[in-house]
Amino acid sequence: MKKVLFLSSFLIMVLFGSTQELVNTNINKVDAQGHRQGHWKAFDVNGLLKFEGRFVDNVPVGTFKYYYESGKIKAVSEMYDQGRRARTKVYHKNGRLMAKGNYLEKKKDSSWVYYSDYDGVLLSTEFYQNGLLEGIVLNYFPTGSVAEEMPYKTGLKQGEWKRYFTDGKVKLKATYIDDELQGLMLVYHQNGFPEVSGTYKNNLKDGMWVYYDDQGFIIKKERYIRGNLKETIIPGQE
Q1: Phi, psi (rounded to 5 degrees) for 149
Q2: Which residue would you say has higher pLDDT here, 51 or 12?
Q3: In this structure, how many other beta carbons lie within 10 angstroms of the beta carbon of residue 224?
Q4: Mind listing the pLDDT tens digit for each residue in 96-154?
Q5: 158-238 has which CATH code?
């Protein structure tokens, strides 16, 4: 999940990042009104090509290409709807597809899909509205089966969070309310027996947490108050 979040942030930087590092060259044309016209190339302070594309009356149109310092393609965006929208593909440095999706007004929009840099397998799928995550984010095992379901509402974690074993059995269940864990969390052994049960309050462990072996026998209890461990109980050692 952390890798996917990094990729998501990286894409914004790639496509709409700092422009103060870009310097115009004499191939770039500006009309009397100061509008960019025709084919443009932008370079960083070291003279390396950052992006190229075409403008009409200062509006980006058609294909825009973004580059790594090595000269390899970093991203390709197809601009349309007067430059408001873009269909985008982003690439890892090794040339494999990193992600594909849409932008609206420079914000992520609708479906986004992410892929591994190693073997190109599906990593994650997301959905955006107004640049914010909306609905269920799905993370996948290399086999293609779902590893995790994380619910979002207007960019905040909201609803039941689930993780799975590779065979599809539930590994973890918990609930987010306004981006914080609240209420019961259950973690399971692969055989279906409970492994851990306990409650969260405002994203902190609270109350009694119980730990089980893979046959359902209690091996430990822990008592928390607002995230602070107050007591540990081992059966037979009370």
Answers
A1: -125, 120
A2: 51
A3: 19
A4: 999 999 999 999 999 999 999 999 999 999 999 999 999 999 999 999 999 999 999 99
A5: 2.20.110.10
CB 134 within 8 A of CB 151: no
How confident is the model over 63-82, as pLDDT tens digits?
999 999 999 999 999 999 99
* CA dihedral sign, ordered 28, 32, 36, 39: negative
Strands 49-56 and 59-67: antiparallel
- CATH-assigned architecture of domain 1-144: Single Sheet (2.20)
- Whole-structure pTM value: 0.86
The per-residue DSSP string of 18-44 comes to -STT-B--TT-EE-TTS-EEEEEEEE-
- The segment(s) of the chain belonging to CATH 2.20.110.10 are 1-144, 158-238
Is the predicted pLDDT of residue 21 greater than 70, yes or no? no
Q: Are 75 and 81 within 8 A, CB to CB?
A: no
**DSSP string spanning 175-233?**
EEETTEE-EEEEEE-TTS-EEEEEEEETTEEEEEEEEE-TTS-EEEEEEEETTEEEEEE
What is the helix (H) or strand (E) element at residue 14, kind and residue range?
Answer: helix 2-16
- Which helix (H) or strand (E) covers residue 2, if one does? helix 2-16
Q: Taking the CA of residue 120 as centre, how many other CA atoms within 13 Å lie in the half-sphere pointing to its CB?
A: 5
